[in-house]
């Protein structure tokens, strides 16, 4: 025999119990997306920086052009803590370091730094 009311409301109770786990999973997935996007941005910024560094004349002008190109396409959320360094001559390399944001870009960052590296042979102009 069945009891009156039976299992009524059981699904609602189970859903309420699972809601925190579902939300935690979504937050962790979003954070993983931000980490991956930061790696993508760091690599792209390093590519742009080394491309500008190979075309610029040697010396301080190269470092300035390299740094400017590396930061050009970064949004303000990643640009604030970004650092761009280029090698002086020969085989031009660019190193970009970005901080990984916590949930909302531009608010807080993890103490973890993502590193992007690129290199190219210096262009010779006749």
Short summary:
The protein has about 130 residues and is of the alpha+beta class. The chain has helices at about 10-55, 60-70, 75-80; strands at about 85, 90-100, 110-120. The radius of gyration is 24 Å and the shape is rod-shaped.
Explained architecture:
- A three-stranded antiparallel beta sheet has the order 1-2-3.
- The chain has one domain.
- Helix 1 packs antiparallel against helix 2 (60-72).
- It has three helices and three strands, in the order H-H-H-E-E-E.
- It has helices at residues 10-55, 60-72, 76-79; strands spanning 83-86, 91-101, 109-121.
- It is rod-shaped, with a radius of gyration of 24 Å.
- By secondary structure, the chain is α+β, with helices and mostly antiparallel strands.
Question: What descriptive keywords fit this protein?
Answer:
three-stranded antiparallel β-sheet; about 130 residues; alpha+beta; 3 strands; 3 helices
State which percent range the strand residues make up: 15-25%
User: Low-confidence parts, pLDDT < 50 over ≥5 residues?
Assistant: none
How would a crystallographer describe the biggest sheet?
3 strands, antiparallel
Helix content: 40-55%
Number of strands: 3
Structural class: alpha+beta
What's the Cα radius of gyration? 24 Å
In round numbers, the mean pLDDT is 82
Q: Largest beta sheet: what is the strand line-up?
A: 1-2-3
- From the N-terminal CA to the C-terminal CA, the straight-line distance is 96 Å
Number of domains: 1
Query: Secondary-structure element sequence?
Result: HHHEEE
> Globular, elongated, flat, extended or rod-shaped: what is the shape?
rod-shaped
Question: What is the overall number of helices?
Answer: 3
């Amino acid at each position: 025999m069945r009891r009156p009311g039976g299992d009524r409301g059981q699904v609602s109770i189970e859903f309420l119990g699972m809601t925190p786990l579902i939300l935690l999973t979504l937050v962790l997935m979003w954070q993983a997306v931000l980490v991956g996007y930061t790696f993508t941005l760091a690599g792209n910024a390093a590519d742009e920086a080394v491309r500008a560094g190979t075309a610029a004349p040697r010396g301080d002008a190269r470092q300035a052009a390299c740094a400017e190109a590396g930061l050009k396409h970064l949004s303000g959320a990643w640009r604030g803590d970004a650092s761009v360094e280029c090698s002086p001559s020969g085989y031009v390399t660019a190193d970009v370091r970005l901080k990984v944001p916590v949930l909302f870009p531009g608010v807080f960052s993890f103490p973890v730094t993502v590193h992007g590296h690129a290199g190219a042979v210096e262009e010779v102009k006749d």
